[in-house]
Amino acid sequence: MTATTTIDIVVNGDRRAVPADATLLELLHLLELDPRTVVVEHNRTIVRRPDLERARIAPGDVIELVHFVGGG
Amino acid sequence: MSQDTPFTIGGRTFQSRLMVGTGKYRDNDEMVRAIEASGAEIVTVAVRRVTLDRAEREGILYHLDPKRYFLLANTAGCYSADEAIRYARLAREAGFNEFVKLEVIGDQETLLPDVAGLLEATRVLVREGFKVLAYTNEDLITALRLEEAGATAVMPLASPIGSGLGLLNPLGIRIIKRRLGVPVVVDAGVGTASDACITMEQGVDGILMNTALAAARDPVGMAHAMRLAVAAGRAAYLAGRMPRREVAVPSSPAEGMLD
Lengths: 72, 259
Description:
Radius of gyration of chain B: 20 Å
Distance between the termini of chain B: 42 Å
Largest sheet of chain B: 5 strands, parallel
Oligomer: heterodimer
Largest interface: A-B, 23 and 36 residues
Number of strands of chain B: 10
Structural class of chain A: mainly beta
Strand order of the largest sheet of chain B: 4-5-6-7-8
Distance between the termini of chain A: 49 Å
């Protein structure tokens, strides 16, 4: 048994269990991602960096974390 | 010598008329050296998912200083207007500028643009304040419609993306350049320096290339060659070429020959 309850969400196409009631900022910390280096899309809506700590994750949420890569 | 005007696009002025991509290089160090050798100031990047595996999550910005280069995000890989709009919004949020190289691809084999989707996405993004550089084909009517829709620049292809076939339709490109007020930047298909030179000789404002550098045996050497070729083609365009003739005209005097 774990001390905290978890919920299932989808991050970048993969199902993932995260602590219930986590914020997007906490998710980034959990994934060891620097919020300054990624853009977060939460259920198809872009969440600006200052709002990450207020946006709470709910079961079934779909989250995309993107950045710039090489391209032409 | 004919004095060149500055290359201005969307209110920004650049010294170099060569723009380069950042894809497909063997390694980041070679990419950085090639971009330096090209003299390019505008550098394209793509938007993709972050790898959640910590070992390989470095983004391109780890290697490219956004203060030194003007980063132009693309919507490569998008097959509908909606998808391209979504990528453009994410790119803007990544936070460098409101410019986007808009690609709406219509076919996997040729990567030719879906011009209906392109026009639709251009209208939406222009309304949202984006400066749209639209990747299109050599069709004049599409280019005119893109300009009407508020595109900042129109980017007709020389030949299909990554093909290295060079400029297949010089007349089509010249007609687009003659008829449009916004900058015309040829995007895709240039294979080697002569292709770049011939493209610039058509009078276009600039060229964007990626594979020609990344897939050269020596990308840094090719980047140097492209820098010279773009400058040479531009200078030749400004100087105005001699008329073509189907008969020879002697260069030496016909008079004064011995009996």
